[in-house]
Design brief:
Shape: globular
CATH class: Alpha Beta
CATH architecture: Alpha-Beta Complex
Order of helices and strands: EEEEEHEHEHEHEEEHHEHE
Oligomer: single chain
CATH topology: Spore Coat Polysaccharide Biosynthesis Protein SpsA, Chain A
Largest sheet: 8 strands, mixed
CATH superfamily: Spore Coat Polysaccharide Biosynthesis Protein SpsA, Chain A
Strand content: 15-25%
Distance between the termini: 46 Å
Radius of gyration: 17 Å
Number of strands: 13
């Protein structure tokens, strides 16, 4: 019997939790900038995500690479992670989700699918989602919803994982909640960290202006794109 933890006013068994951290994208709207290697206050975003996952008690992390594979693998070498390369990363994010899910070892009660370009996500935010996963009344994918906007990361159970691996279910599809409501458990929250990411130079500038924090883009000439 697992250790019992008290969260949200109830007792829940300790979950075995995995995570797929997506770091394969080409950063097209940032003109090829490797988003996971952007530094916030001197720390690469991918390192911040890995620290957050560790702090939330995640048991295994798969980092999915694609664009700039060598640079990202070099950056995470000091972390205990599983590396999975998506040769077809240019075909879209969903192929990277499948590569990551297949690379997880063993069975998990819950699996995060996490983007490497969310600079504000910390361990507390992940714990919030784990709590929502434990307390959900139905559904197999916990999706944070902030002011009607879908956020990330999401949390999957084994039913959702099997469905994704066996079909074309797309976690990145905005109408997912409307199209497959039985699959989704919406976690409604005012936590805007779930909807803060860096897709464009404007996003970087706006976050710099609103926080006063220092963002540094990686030099393009130092990044291999194999």
């Amino acid at each position: 019997m697992g250790c019992l933890l008290k969260q949200g006013g109830g007792l829940h068994p300790r979950l075995r939790i995995g995570a797929v951290l997506l770091a394969a994208g080409e950063g097209l709207r940032l003109r090829g900038v490797v988003k996971s290697l952007i530094r916030l206050q001197g720390v690469p975003l991918i390192n911040r995500q890995l620290v957050a996952l560790s702090g939330a008690g995640v048991d295994e992390v798969v980092v999915v690479t694609g664009h700039a594979r060598e640079a990202i693998e070099q950056q995470v070498r000091s972390f205990v992670v599983t590396l999975a390369h998506n040769e077809s990363h240019a075909s879209g994010q969903q192929s990277s989700v499948r590569v990551g899910l297949k690379a997880l070892s063993g069975q998990f009660d819950a699996v995060f699918v996490m983007l490497a370009d969310q600079p504000l996500i910390g361990a507390g935010d992940l714990v919030e989602l784990i709590g929502a996963f434990k307390k959900r009344a139905g559904g197999h994918i916990v999706v944070p919803m902030v002011e009607g906007r879908r956020g990330n990361p999401v949390v999957l159970d084994d039913v959702a994982i099997a469905k994704i691996l066996a079909s074309d279910t797309n976690l990145g599809c905005p109408p997912l909640i409307e199209q497959e409501p039985e699959l989704v458990s919406a976690h409604r929250t005012d936590n805007k960290r779930f909807t803060t990411d860096l897709d464009t130079f404007e996003d970087v500038q706006q976050l710099t202006d609103s926080t006063g924090w220092r963002f540094e883009l990686p030099p393009q000439e130092s990044v291999s794109v194999t």
